[in-house]
Specification:
Layout lengths: L1 H27 L11 H13 L3 H6 L10 H9 L8 E11 L2 E11 L7 E13 L2 E6 L22
Antiparallel strand pairs: 1-2, 2-3, 3-4
C-alpha cells in the first residue's frame, strides 16, 4: 500500500514537471520581429525573417534590381522545392562596413543537421548590399539564403567552328 502511494507520488511529480516544462517552452518562444528598413543589418535581418516565415514576396522585395535578377516565380520556387532551404540555419550579423552606396556585412551562417544533439557548423561570409533609390537592397548573400545562379550573366553556348 505504501509503495503504491510512493510510486503514485513520483509519477505525479514527473507529470507535473513535464507539464511545467512544456508550458515554459511554449510561452518563452518569441516570434521574430521585423526591424525598420533603414540599415543594411536590418535589411538582412528582415530578409531572413521573411524567408523563415515563408513570406517570399517580402523577401523578394529586398533583392537589388540589377541585370539577371531572378523572376519572382523562380525565386519562390527555389525555396518551395527546397533547392534552397534556410530552415536549419540561423543568420548572425557580425559587422558592417558602409562605403557611400555599398555595404559589406559580415555574417555568420550557423547550420545544424539532424537532431538537437548534432554538431553545428558556423561559417563566416560577406553579404553585399547597395543603395537604390534611397533603400538598401541585397545583391549577394551566402547559401542557404541565396541561389548560386542569381544575378549571374547568362551565357550562350559556343558556336561550333566550321
Amino acid at each position: 500500500m505504501k509503495q503504491d502511494r510512493f510510486l503514485t507520488a513520483i509519477l505525479t511529480g514527473i507529470l507535473l514537471l513535464a507539464a511545467l516544462s512544456l508550458v515554459v517552452f511554449f510561452t518563452r518562444q518569441k516570434q521574430p520581429v521585423y526591424q525598420p528598413d533603414d540599415t543594411p543589418e536590418n535589411i538582412l535581418h528582415n530578409y531572413a525573417i521573411a524567408l523563415y516565415q515563408k513570406d517570399y514576396e517580402k523577401a523578394y522585395s529586398y533583392l537589388a534590381d540589377m541585370a539577371n535578377k531572378p523572376e519572382y516565380t523562380v525565386f519562390r520556387q527555389a525555396f518551395l522545392s527546397k533547392q534552397i532551404d534556410p530552415s536549419n540555419s540561423d543568420l548572425q550579423i557580425e559587422s558592417t562596413e558602409i562605403n557611400d552606396n555599398e555595404a559589406l556585412v559580415v555574417v555568420s551562417v550557423i547550420s545544424s543537421w539532424g537532431g538537437p544533439f548534432e554538431n553545428t557548423n558556423r561559417s563566416t561570409y560577406t553579404a553585399t548590399l547597395e543603395k537604390q533609390d534611397g533603400q538598401w537592397k541585397i545583391n549577394n548573400m551566402p547559401y542557404p539564403y541565396w541561389g548560386w545562379d542569381w544575378y549571374q550573366p547568362t551565357t550562350e553556348p559556343a558556336k561550333p567552328i566550321p
